[in-house]
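subagent[fold] <- orchestrator: predict structure for attached chain, return tokens only, no commentary.
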Amino acid sequence: MDNERNCEMDLEKENRPEHLSEGDNQPEEGAEEAKDEVSLLQEQLEAERLKAQEYYDKYMRALADAENQRKRWQKDKEELLRYGNMPLLRKLLPIVDDFKRAKAAIEQGGDVSSLLKGVEMIEKRLLDLLEQEGVKAIPAQGEMFDPRFHEAFSVDESGQYPDGTVVQEFQTGYTYLERVLRPSMVVVAQTRSTEEE
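subagent[fold] -> orchestrator:
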């Protein structure tokens, strides 16, 4: 009986296929393919996460660099505004020295004509320096009144000059690089008064 049983088992083994059919094996292969796909997606996700972190780090560095550059520019701007006049001030110092020498000469009782000549030389030197720096006197005497450059201080109604002509200049006006630093204070000719109009 045991022999029969053994024979039957042997027959079953022989008749049993070594490999399962494709249909029977499908769930195992599908699971392995799904695992492979999940692993691949996880690897891709990790790679993209690393790229995103790298881009974020670069962005943060660029942001910090931009902020540092802005601070440097602000500091440079403040220094320029604070110390930008130093070259001009250096040029003015010799003129201050000339005034001190003129004052000392007056205190020592120097000749008035030579003192006047010295002061005129200092004035010319100062005006030359201002012109080199872009400061120019506004022409006024004999010019037509221009409210952009002249400020009417008074009116001359004598009738000796055409209307709107600058008859006299009380204070010289100046421009700096085409902008008015100070308008000229002038007397303007006007034949008829504003009350008659």
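orchestrator: received. Logging for downstream: The chain has four helices and six strands. The chain has a mean pLDDT of 84.
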